[in-house]
Specification:
The radius of gyration is 12 Å and the shape is elongated. The relative contact order is 0.19. Helix content is 43%, strand content 5%. By secondary structure, the protein is mainly alpha-helical. Strand 1 and strand 2 form a beta hairpin. The longest helix has 16 residues. The termini are far apart. Helix 1 crosses helix 3. It has a two-stranded antiparallel sheet with strand order 1-2. The chain contains three helices and two strands; from the N terminus they run H-H-H-E-E.
């Protein structure tokens, strides 16, 4: 089974909001994984999804969609967390 979107697509989406001549917001899969896991935990603990989702959709899938669609922002390296 393939993950959609891929890590590469996720990183491109997150970094697309960054100015071209600056350091990328994320430069590794680890950053994407950590931010997605943190957001999934927030959803499990009761936060409402910020994108359309199906009732049977798992929190991790929702978190991936939120980050990919830009509903949740990943802060630059000096602030290693996801922000709504």
């Amino acid at each position: 089974m393939m993950i959609h979107p891929s890590y590469k697509e996720m990183m491109e989406a997150v970094n697309s909001e960054n100015e071209e001549d600056t350091t990328p917001i994320v430069s590794s899969r680890y950053s994407i994984v950590m931010a997605t896991a943190k957001r999934a935990r927030q959803i499990v603990n009761g936060d409402e999804p910020l994108v359309d989702s199906y009732p049977e959709e798992k929190p991790l899938s929702i978190a991936v969609d939120e980050i990919y669609q830009g509903a949740v922002k990943i802060l630059p390296v000096n602030n290693q967390s996801a922000q709504k």
